[in-house]
Predict the structure.
Amino acid sequence: MEALTEEWVEALVAASAAVTDDRVGDRSGVIELTIGKKRRAVVSMVEGRVVGPSDAEGDDIDVSIPFSDDQLRAYLSGEKSIARDYIRGDVKPVGSTGPWLSFIELVESGSLQPLA
């Protein structure tokens, strides 16, 4: 399945819903995920889980996270750690830290591996 498509976002919501409370934080916000300049998904995160797509634009987006296709796939599969790469400066989100940290916790929980 190609990342950031409507089908992928639906799978992200389903996988996110299955995460147990002790594996994710309680932060909320609107997250923009991008691959290159053409592929983009904007999702709403509530209490550490992605609850669905969002039609937010501009200042209504709390954090924007650019990835390469290979990079996103490696994080979701668990091959690479998104937290470690963030600390090393290999991932450069722009915007609010809260939703970003929740996204890190969600990815690091391992529950999104089927999306890789």
